[in-house]
């Protein structure tokens, strides 16, 4: 239910604690409100659907300490990309054996730190990275990340991470030659893979590589299926339990009874948080301009970096929902011309929208606080309230 009137909220939401909190409070600056109970429910649903796979939450999605502690208490593992993320997980009670150092580009000193505190599982995709791990985490277990094609995600990932499939056999052999233990393979199906069936072509590619590696004598036991678990934005998705069950069924059909690691990030926390923001200006560039420009007090540099290329399209609630709408170019407040959120596909917002109206940007629990700048143009970083 929309809870706005005259630029402010007047009625509480009944089924979403974060929206209800926003409805009952005012904020001096853009604020993300997170509901831990919603994160717990998402974890439980994914965990049940994955049916024995090990969840390693992708810390980068939202490293809020209270979220990490909640997931520790629920039995989650963690995918960490840096020393700081490892330290965060340990500080919140995670055991080192449930943390994997999943970044394939690591400082030698950070590898040594991780190994020193008990982390023994590392990702790699190149000989030079295997050399660093062998030198600073001797005997460690490694999984090799592979580039996959045929991604059908809303945000397909680039070739920045992973080795070419043709390079995998030599890398597996090299890992053994430097004293490491290659235990498995990893991949990423692409961020926001909205349908479980979209995993099929990628799993087919990985299955061929997996079985070829085993035929070559490598005793692989761990398949890291990465992330890709979706959140609801502007297109329908399956419920988390059903989605996870459909994915793991496809994995089991191709790989059998192997250890499976999943790294949900967006799918764990995005729907648990919403951002309270404010309209700063509504204008037209000329009297006959078909599009209004709507400027918010939050933009790409203050938390909404995932609007890059308009890949993630957030739903926006306004005080005037239900009235006549028209197309808008949506932009942030900074003096950088790149700080435009949606222009290629203008958003439909009420014609009555005006400066000073409070708005809610829905399902922003993932990749917002971590993308917010320290204070570009002097605008404050995104504030956070955890329920």
What does this structure look like?
- The protein folds into two domains: 4-34 and 271-386, Lyase, Ornithine Decarboxylase, Chain A, domain 1, CATH 2.40.37; 36-264, Alanine racemase (TIM Barrel, Alpha-Beta Barrel).
- 28% of the residues lie in helices and 23% in strands.
- It contains ten helices and 18 strands.
- Helix 7 links the parallel strand 8 (141-145) and strand 9.
- Helix 5 packs across helix 6 and helix 8 (200-215) packs parallel to helix 9 (240-255).
- The protein is elongated and about 70 Å long.
Provide a compact summary of the structure.
The chain has two domains: 147 residues, Beta Barrel (Lyase, Ornithine Decarboxylase, Chain A, domain 1); 229 residues, Alanine racemase (TIM Barrel). It contains ten helices and 18 strands.
Summarize the helices and strands and which ones pair or pack.
Layout: E1 4-5, E2 8-9, H1 17-24, E3 31-34, H2 36-50, E4 54-58, H3 65-74, E5 77-80, H4 83-91, E6 99-101, H5 108-116, E7 121-124, H6 127-136, E8 141-145, H7 168-177, E9 181-186, H8 200-215, E10 222-226, H9 240-255, E11 259-262, H10 266-269, E12 273-283, E13 292-296, E14 316-317, E15 325-331, E16 340-350, E17 358-361, E18 383-386
Parallel strand pairs: 3-18, 4-5, 4-11, 5-6, 6-7, 7-8, 8-9, 9-10, 10-11, 13-15
Antiparallel strand pairs: 1-2, 3-12, 12-13, 12-17, 14-17, 15-16
């Amino acid at each position: 239910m929309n809870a706005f009137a005259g630029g402010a909220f007047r009625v509480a939401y009944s089924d979403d604690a974060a929206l209800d909190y926003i409805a009952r409070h005012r904020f001096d600056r853009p604020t993300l409100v997170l509901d831990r109970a919603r994160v717990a429910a998402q974890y439980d649903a994914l965990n049940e659907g994955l049916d024995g796979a090990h969840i390693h939450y992708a810390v980068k999605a939202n490293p809020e300490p209270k979220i990490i502690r909640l997931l520790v208490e629920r039995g989650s593992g963690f995918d960490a990309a840096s020393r700081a993320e490892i330290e965060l997980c340990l500080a919140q009670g995670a055991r080192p054996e449930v943390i994997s150092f999943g970044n394939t580009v690591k400082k030698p000193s950070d590898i040594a730190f991780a190994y020193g505190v008990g982390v023994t599982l590392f990702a790699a995709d190149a000989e030079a990275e295997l050399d660093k791990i062998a030198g600073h985490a001797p005997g460690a277990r490694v999984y090799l990340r592979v580039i996959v094609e045929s991604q059908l995600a809303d945000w397909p990932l680039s070739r920045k991470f992973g080795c070419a499939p043709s390079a995998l056999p030599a890398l597996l052999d090299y890992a053994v030659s430097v004293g490491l233990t290659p235990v498995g393979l990893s991949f990423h199906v692409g961020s926001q893979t909205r349908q479980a069936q979209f995993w099929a072509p990628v799993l087919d590619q990985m299955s061929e590589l997996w079985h070829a590696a085993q035929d070559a004598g490598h005793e692989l036991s761990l398949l890291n299926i990465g992330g890709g678990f979706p959140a609801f934005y502007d297109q329908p998705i399956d419920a988390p339990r059903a989605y996870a069950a459909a994915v793991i069924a496809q994995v089991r059909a191709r790989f059998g009874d192997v250890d499976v690691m999943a790294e949900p990030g967006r799918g764990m926390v995005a729907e648990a948080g919403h951002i309270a923001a404010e309209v700063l200006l509504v204008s037209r560039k000329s009297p006959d301009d078909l599009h209004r420009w709507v400027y918010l007090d939050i933009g790409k540099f203050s938390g909404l970096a995932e609007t890059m290329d308009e890949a993630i399209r957030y739903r926006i609630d306004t005080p005037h929902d239900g009235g006549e709408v028209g197309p808008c170019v949506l932009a942030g407040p900074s003096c950088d011309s790149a700080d435009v959120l949606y222009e290629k596909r203008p958003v439909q917002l009420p014609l009555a929208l005006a400066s000073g109206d409070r708005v809610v940007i829905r399902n922003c629990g993932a990749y917002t606080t971590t993308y917010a700048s320290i204070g570009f143009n002097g605008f404050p970083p995104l504030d956070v309230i955890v329920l």
